[in-house]
Amino acid sequence: MKINVPFIDLKRLEPGFHSVLMEKFHAMTLNAQFIGGAEVSMLESRLQGELQVAHAVTCANGTDALQLALRAAGVGEGDVVLVPNVTFWATFEAVVNVGAKPITVDADLSDGGVCFEAFERAILEAKPKVALVAHLYGWGTARLLELRKLCCEHDVVLVEDGAQAFGVRYQNESIYKGAHISTTSFYPAKVLGGAGDGGAVFTNDAELADKVRRLGNHGRTAHYGYGDVGWNSRLDSLQAAFLNLSLDHIDARIVSRREAVAYYQKTLPATGIQLMSAPAGYEENGYCNVCLVPEPEVKAGLEARLKAEGIGFGNIYPSVMSSQPGAAAYLRGHFGAQVGEQLCASVLNLPLFPYMAETELQRVVDVVGAALGGDHVL
Ligand SMILES: *Cc1c(COP(=O)(O)O)cnc(C)c1O
User: Under CATH, which number does the domain 251-372 receive?
Assistant: First the structure.
C-alpha cells in the first residue's frame, strides 16, 4: 500500500488524552496555578520513582539541565570539560555557557557513544574537572560502568546527558540510577515530551540536588535571600501537568516504540541496510532508529527514494561538534581520531514513534528494500 509515513507524529496520542488535559488546564488556569505547586512536586516525585533516583529537580529545558548540572558540580571560568564530539549542540553549548573550556572526545562506531580509549587518554592528559557523555539514540555506551569507574578513580565528575534516554534500562535498572548526576529534556519530540520546553536534573546526592534547585531559582535561600547567582529555570506548572498526564501513558508508549524497533530488527536486515542496535545489557527505549549507510552515493540514492515515496527520515547528527563554525572560538582540543565524522556521515534515521501501524513499518521497509535493489516490489 502506497502510504506516506512521517518521520515523527506527535499528534498520535491516546484517545481521551486531550479532554483530560483540557479539564486539568481549565482548573489550573481558574486557580491561577502557574508556578510550582502540586503538579511540579508530583512530577518530581514520580520521576524519582520511575527512574530510581533519589532526587529529581525539574527545570526549563534540557540545555539548562546540563548547565545546572555543570554549575552544581562546581564548573566555572576556565575549567576543562570533556564533551563527546558526536552529540546535540546543546551539550557543547552548556560547557561554554558556564565559562568552561570544551575538549571533544571521538566517537565509537559500534554504539555511538564516546571512544573509551580516547576518553581515558583525555582524562589522564587533559585533567578535566568534569566529563560529559551523552546517551544517544535510545541506549547508552557498552562501557558505561567502566566510564563511571574511571571518572570516579580520577576525581572527575561525570555528567550524563540523558536527554534521549528516558526509559532506557541497563542491567535491569534505569540508566539514570547509577549516574552521579544526569539530565533529561522534555522537548516534545523526546520520549517523555512536553507541550513545549522542559528538563530535569537527577542525582542521588542530596547536596548536589539542593544546589541544582537553588541555581535554577535565582540562587534563592529565602524569597529575598540569594546564596548564589543562578537564573530562572523553573518548569511551568501547566507544563508539569501535561508531563504528569503523559507519564500515565509512558509505559504503553515505550512498549509501542520497542515493538517498532523489533519490527525493524526483524525485517530491515533482509534489505541489506546496516542497523545499529543497543549494546548487550541494554533495554532500549525506542527513541530513534539508526541505520548506517557509509557509501555516500548509496545514502543519497536511498534518501531520494524515501523522499519521492513520502517516507520521512532524519540524520541525527549530520556533523561533529568540532567542525561547527560556532565551536571554533571555544574548542581547546580533541582526543581520538575522526570516527565521529564517519558516524555522522553514515547515520540515516527511519521513522520511529509511538503507535506506528504495522502497515507503516512495512511500507518503510519495502521502500528501503526497493531502493537498495532487493526484490521488494512496491
Ligand atoms: C534534546 C537534547 C538536548 C537539549 O534539550 P532541550 O530541552 O532542547 O534544551 C541536549 N542534549 C541532547 C543529547 C538532546 O538530545
Answer: 3.90.1150.10
